[in-house]
Amino acid sequence: MTVRISAENTWQLRASCRGPESALFFPPTYPERKEDRDARELKAKSICRDCPVRIECLDYALSIREPHGIWGGLTESERRLLLADDVS
Predict the structure, then answer these.
(1) pTM, whole model, 2 decimals?
(2) Own/partner pairs for 16-21, CB < 8 Å, 24+ apart?
(3) 48, 79 in Cβ contact below 8 A?
(4) How many CB atoms lie within 10 A of CB 1?
(5) Does residue 71 sit in helix, strand or coil?
(6) From residue 61, how far is each of 10, 16, 78 by CA, in Å?
(7) Residues 9-24: pLDDT tens digits?
(8) Which residues, 6+ apart, have CB-to-CB distance to 87 below 8 Å?
């Protein structure tokens, strides 16, 4: 996950997704089979589950309407649904 760190989002320094498994949180640059995507997302979400900054991460992704990757334990489509529910 490559994001500029500022005073407002230093929580990213404590995120469990930092490190060698960070690639799990975004789709690869090549076509991905559904089974592979599901497995990758499940593994990424398991990392998010115990992350000490999961809520901050999700709040950040929702506030900037991040269109890619898993943030705060939710996929792009799950975040879109959450935002749509807030509008309704």
Answers:
(1) 0.83
(2) 16/47, 16/48, 16/50, 16/51, 16/52, 16/53, 17/44, 17/47, 17/48, 17/51, 21/47
(3) no
(4) 16
(5) strand
(6) 14, 16, 12
(7) 688 999 999 988 899 9
(8) none
Token readout for 71 is 């943030």
Helix ranges (DSSP H) in 1-88: 34-49, 54-64, 76-87
Q: Compute CA distances 37 → 56, 58, 68, whole Å.
A: 25, 20, 14
Buried b / exposed e over 30-65, threshold 16 CB at 10 Å, is eeeeeeeeeebbeebbebbeebebbebbbebbbeee
pLDDT in tens, 74-86: 999 999 999 887 6
Q: Is the pLDDT score of 7 beyond 70?
A: no
**For the chain, which residues make up each domain, given as ranges?**
7-87
